[in-house]
Structures are given as structure tokens and as C-alpha cells.
Specification:
single chain; about 270 residues; mainly alpha; globular
């Protein structure tokens, strides 16, 4: 195992896995408690339009996906702020339109030769230094925002009416959660791809939710679990020549099954 650590691309992959795991743990917890799990998949697929835009006009993929994903998040916030029960409908529409735009722009790009599979299923082994700067900067911003506005975001996430009574700016924090979710989804695409991103943002969070009794502890547990699943998946994918994104999600799925089994055993023993 130590032999693989001598390669720079492995070092970058490990660092990316840690950064994205903690960002996903924090934002994934907000997505779960706000009941917007479908949002992750919606933004991920919508950001494909940004990938097509970047390919067509020749600017960085991360930049194009981030701009498109944030624009989609702002649009979702504007449409659903006062009608959250219909958010799934709007996400489905934006999801389809974003994908369509991306596919059409890629079709129109002359001499296109970029590997689409890396965006569909992740390419953590191809993380660059610039990607790491973006991931690290995003995690830093997320931690600062959660440290400064934790109570306000907590109130908005669990009871927006109560937050309104406390004079908390609900539209601002609701929109902020969506934008941070969009940016986190974009960096997570680099690790597991847009098809599998929902699993990364939900499986560790589900386990963490069962193990914690506060939102803060849930975020920490989710980050730690996500990091463990990501690094173990990365190790297995490297040693057995498997697709890294899919392996990470499979490890997460096995981890969830193990948790279910252990939980059943504990409940059975406690019932005796």
C-alpha cells in the first residue's frame, strides 16, 4: 500500500477524497434534513449543461459546471422558495433541460475528444492541483459559513416558520444552502461522477444521522464515514484496476449493509 503513495496522482486523489468527503458530509447533512435529496441528482445532471458549455467555448470544465450548477440552484431557489412541496417537479424539468443543453453543445463542438466517462463516473485519479485548490477553498468557505451561521441555518433547515418568527432571513439561507449544494455536487462529480453523486451525498449521511443527535455531530460523523469509504474505495480501485467512482460507492453500499446488520444484532440483544 505504501508503494502507491509515492505517486503524485495518488497523493492528489487522497487529498481530494478527504476534502470532498468532508464537504459532502456537511452539505449532504443539510440536503437530508431539508428533504432535498433529489436536489443532488438534479444539480449534478443539470451541471452537465455547464460541461457542454465549457467544452464548446473552450474554458475550464470546473468553471463551466460551477456556473451552470449555481445558476440552476438560484433558479430553483427562486421558483421553490414559497412552494417547496413542488421542488421535485422543478428539479426534474431543470435536470432534463440541463442534460439536453450539454449533449447538444458537445455534439456541436468540432473535433471533440474529451473523455465523457470521467464526468459520468468520476476521475479522482486525474485530479489536478487546480482542482485541489478549488476543493480546499470550497471546504474552507463551507466551514466558515457553518461556524458563523450555524444556528440560523439549523433553524431554517428544521422549521422555516420558526426561523421567520426569529427574524432570520429565510430566503437568503435557503438560497445559500442550494448554492453550496450546487458547488459541492460539482466537486463530488470529480470523485464519483454525476451518475453516482447522490449516493456519496446520502449513504454516509444516513448512517451518521442514526449515530448522532445534533446536526453538527451528524456533519462530523458523515465527513469521517465518507472519508473512510472514499479512501478504502480508492485503495481497492487502484489495486484491482476498477473504476474509482463506482468502487467508492460500492464500498459505501457495503458499509450501509454492515450498519443495518449490526443495528439488527444490537436491537435483538437489547430485546432479550
Amino acid at each position: 500500500m505504501l508503494d502507491m503513495l509515492q505517486y503524485e496522482f495518488i497523493q492528489n486523489a487522497i487529498l481530494a477524497g478527504i476534502l470532498v468527503s468532508f464537504a459532502s458530509g456537511i452539505i449532504g447533512s443539510l440536503i437530508v434534513v431539508n428533504r432535498m435529496v433529489f436536489l443532488a441528482g438534479g444539480i449534478a445532471h443539470t451541471s452537465y449543461g455547464g460541461i457542454g458549455l465549457a467544452v464548446y467555448f473552450g474554458f475550464p470544465i470546473f468553471l463551466g459546471a460551477s456556473i451552470f450548477a449555481c445558476a440552476a440552484a438560484l433558479l430553483m431557489a427562486f421558483i421553490t422558495l414559497k412552494n417547496r412541496n413542488r421542488i421535485d417537479t422543478f428539479i426534474g424539468l431543470i435536470w432534463a433541460i440541463g442534460m439536453a443543453i450539454g449533449i447538444i453543445l458537445i455534439d456541436l463542438t468540432p473535433g471533440y475528444n474529451v473523455d465523457l466517462m470521467s464526468y459520468l463516473f468520476g476521475s479522482i485519479l486525474a485530479v489536478s492541483d487546480q482542482d485541489l485548490y478549488f476543493m480546499g477553498g470550497l471546504l474552507f468557505v463551507i466551514i466558515v459559513i457553518m461556524s458563523v451561521w450555524y444556528r440560523d441555518i439549523l433553524a431554517v433547515s428544521y422549521d422555516s416558520e420558526y426561523a421567520n418568527l426569529r427574524s432570520i432571513n429565510v430566503p437568503f439561507f435557503y438560497t445559500l444552502i442550494l448554492v453550496l449544494s450546487a458547488l459541492t455536487v460539482v466537486v463530488a462529480i470529480k470523485v464519483v461522477g454525476l451518475i453516482l453523486v447522490i449516493a456519496l451525498l446520502t449513504i454516509p449521511i444516513y448512517i451518521a444521522e442514526k449515530l448522532s443527535n445534533t446536526l453538527a455531530s451528524m456533519m462530523v460523523y458523515a465527513g469521517v464515514l465518507s472519508t473512510f469509504f472514499t479512501l478504502l474505495g480508492l485503495f481497492l480501485s487502484y489495486n484491482y484496476d476498477l473504476t474509482s467512482g463506482a468502487t467508492i460507492i460500492m464500498v459505501s453500499g457495503v458499509g450501509l449493509i454492515v450498519y443495518f446488520v449490526v443495528e439488527k444484532i444490537v436491537r435483538y440483544k437489547n430485546s432479550l
